[in-house]
């Protein structure tokens, strides 16, 4: 099949592109290619095979329309977005422009050319602080930061298109992706705000002290609990959803997670066991927008599509540690 992946040089996008290319699909990657992404694409070519590349900014509507004119795809997987929750609270307008307005420009250009099938990279952040866990897709939406708002607004745009413009959509609300494909590609955010890569990078320095943001949450050990999903499992979920979105009309939303929660202190303990290194940490104030516990109920996608996570936390940290030891030092320059 012919698949367009926006943000295909990013962390989740590149793993999904790798999965699809290796499965024999024709892949087109649309990306602005910032933040060390050229070498990620080289890894994709050497490990999986060739693909088409469109170097574009979603917010440049004219260039986007020109590049996508008369282009049709069997499915579009839309990842391209700003993702840092903390930065979204400081720069909400920029997040709306990139995540919502840019997405709207993309959808307009694609739908005008007859593209019908979309898989959208949403987020469990739309649930905010849940009333209970595990979280079901039907649970209350609580938009506690601008990042979450942009994800939910984009979902609703696509829901409207599914209702009135004969478009088919799967929105995937995933929880906490982490890990690496065989240590070849991994998380390369700068600044790095995600727990596992932050922690593992710290182990490569001599004076690292891990900051634990909050130890007074209503959780068993007082630290925040998250549902960590292996990046390879997440990529497979997107691949599995392609057949579903092509065969089913309308809008559907699925949680992507393991259904198992792990606290920050438990992640630290697991990382110590896997790396053989002692992790020094200190408690810092909670970050704005962080929730105490986010754990998925993934039973809907398991029943309707047959996808289920295969990897556990040990697999995630082991693969992430393998990547961290190979990660270019220029990432932190």
From TrEMBL:
<comment type="subunit">
    <text>Homodimer.</text>
</comment>
<dbReference type="InterPro" id="IPR005886">
    <property type="entry name" value="UDP_G4E"/>
</dbReference>
<dbReference type="InterPro" id="IPR036291">
    <property type="entry name" value="NAD(P)-bd_dom_sf"/>
</dbReference>
<keyword id="KW-0175">Coiled coil</keyword>
<dbReference type="GO" id="GO:0033499">
    <property type="term" value="P:galactose catabolic process via UDP-galactose, Leloir pathway"/>
</dbReference>
<keyword id="KW-0119">Carbohydrate metabolism</keyword>
<comment type="pathway">
    <text>Carbohydrate metabolism; galactose metabolism.</text>
</comment>
<keyword id="KW-0413">Isomerase</keyword>
<keyword id="KW-0520">NAD</keyword>
<comment type="similarity">
    <text>Belongs to the NAD(P)-dependent epimerase/dehydratase family.</text>
</comment>
<feature type="domain" description="NAD(P)-binding">
    <location>
        <begin position="4"/>
        <end position="318"/>
    </location>
</feature>
<dbReference type="Pfam" id="PF16363">
    <property type="entry name" value="GDP_Man_Dehyd"/>
</dbReference>
<protein>
    <recommendedName>
        <fullName>UDP-glucose 4-epimerase</fullName>
        <ecNumber>5.1.3.2</ecNumber>
    </recommendedName>
</protein>
<dbReference type="GO" id="GO:0003978">
    <property type="term" value="F:UDP-glucose 4-epimerase activity"/>
</dbReference>
<feature type="coiled-coil region">
    <location>
        <begin position="41"/>
        <end position="71"/>
    </location>
</feature>
<dbReference type="InterPro" id="IPR016040">
    <property type="entry name" value="NAD(P)-bd_dom"/>
</dbReference>
């Amino acid at each position: 099949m012919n698949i367009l992946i926006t943000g295909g040089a990013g962390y989740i996008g590149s793993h999904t592109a790798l999965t699809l290319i290796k499965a024999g699909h024709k892949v087109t990657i649309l990306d602005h290619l910032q933040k060390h992404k050229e070498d990620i694409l080289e890894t994709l070519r050497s490990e999986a095979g060739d693909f088409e590349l469109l170097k574009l900014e979603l917010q440049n509507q004219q260039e986007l329309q020109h590049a996508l004119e008369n282009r049709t795809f069997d499915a579009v997987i839309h990842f391209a977005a700003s993702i840092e929750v903390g930065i979204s609270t400081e720069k909400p307008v920029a997040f709306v422009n990139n995540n919502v307005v840019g997405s709207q420009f993309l959808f307009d250009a694609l739908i005008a050319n007859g593209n019908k099938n979309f898989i959208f990279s949403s987020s469990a952040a739309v649930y905010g602080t849940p009333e209970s866990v595990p979280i079901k897709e039907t649970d209350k939406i609580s938009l506690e930061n601008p990042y979450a708002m942009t994800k939910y607004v984009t979902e609703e745009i696509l829901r409207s298109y599914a209702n009135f413009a004969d478009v088919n959509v799967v929105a995937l609300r995933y929880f906490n992706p982490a890990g690496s494909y065989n240590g070849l590609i991994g998380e390369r955010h700068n600044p790095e705000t995600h727990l596992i890569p932050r922690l593992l990078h710290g182990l490569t320095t001599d004076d690292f002290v891990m900051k634990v943001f909050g130890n007074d949450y209503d959780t068993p050990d007082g630290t925040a609990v998250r549902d960590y999903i292996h990046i390879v499992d997440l990529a497979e979920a997107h691949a599995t959803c392609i057949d579903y979105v092509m065969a089913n009309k309308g809008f559907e939303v699925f949680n992507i997670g393991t259904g198992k929660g792990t606290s920050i202190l438990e992640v630290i303990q697991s990382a110590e066991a896997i790396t053989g290194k002692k992790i020094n940490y200190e408690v810092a104030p909670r970050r704005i927008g962080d929730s105490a516990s986010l754990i998925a109920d993934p039973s809907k996608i398991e029943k309707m599509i047959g996808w289920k996570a295969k990897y556990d936390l040990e697999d995630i940290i082991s693969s992430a540690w393998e990547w961290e030891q190979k990660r270019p030092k220029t990432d932190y320059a």
